[in-house]
Design goal:
With 192 residues, the protein is mostly helical. Helix content is 78%, strand content 0%.
């Protein structure tokens, strides 16, 4: 019951109640792996990265490797400015889960935080964002291209997203925002 309530409160944005219920679920049954995962994800969302990291490590020790837990760990390490650890963890994770594009995006973000821009581009080139039907992953790829200063690749990615996801308002807004940032208000209006 505590686990279900915690998940519900998390979805409702009631952070204190979600934390209380998820913590109770974990404390009542230390072997309840779904509750541990949910609590780790919640803690990471709440910027409690040290706690999230500890819970992820406990989860892996008890349950084994899990791609979502590894992503949470990698992102927590980047947040804590432990880029080298994040890069090492995420490189191993990409090898273990080569078809997980979000893992590659997280690795690229960790590399960017570590100042390894050339490696970021290699990671992005190794994945084909058009093979994923997840708009969030493709948006992240476009954003990473922008952070690298590769504006033409960012534009190409955003235009492809708009083409592939015509019913998603965010695809139009992202492209319009890009056009505005480049000082192209007429092109931005044309997108919308």
């Amino acid at each position: 019951a505590h686990y279900q309530l915690g998940r519900l409160y998390r979805k409702m944005g009631k952070a204190n109640l979600a934390y209380t219920e998820l913590s109770r679920a974990v404390s009542l049954d230390r072997s309840f792996k779904e509750a541990k995962r949910e609590l780790a994800f919640f803690l990471a969302e709440q910027k409690a990265q040290e706690e999230a990291l500890k819970l992820c490590e406990q989860y892996i020790e008890a349950e084994g490797r899990d791609p979502d837990i590894l992503l949470t760990m990698g992102n927590a390490l980047v947040f804590l400015q432990r880029q080298d650890e994040a890069v090492n963890l995420l490189r191993r994770a990409v090898k273990d889960y080569p078809d997980n594009n979000m893992m590659r995006v997280s690795l690229a973000r960790a590399l960017l935080a570590a100042g390894a821009d050339d490696e970021v581009r290699l990671v992005l080139e190794e994945m084909d964002p058009e093979l994923t039907d997840d708009i969030n992953i493709r948006q992240a790829v476009g954003s990473l291209y922008g952070q690298l200063g590769l504006k033409q690749l960012q534009l190409k990615t955003l235009e492809q997203i708009k083409s592939d996801f015509p019913d998603e308002p965010v695809s139009y807004l992202s492209l319009a925002r890009f056009r505005l940032q480049r000082g192209e208000p007429d092109k931005a209006r044309a997108v919308l």
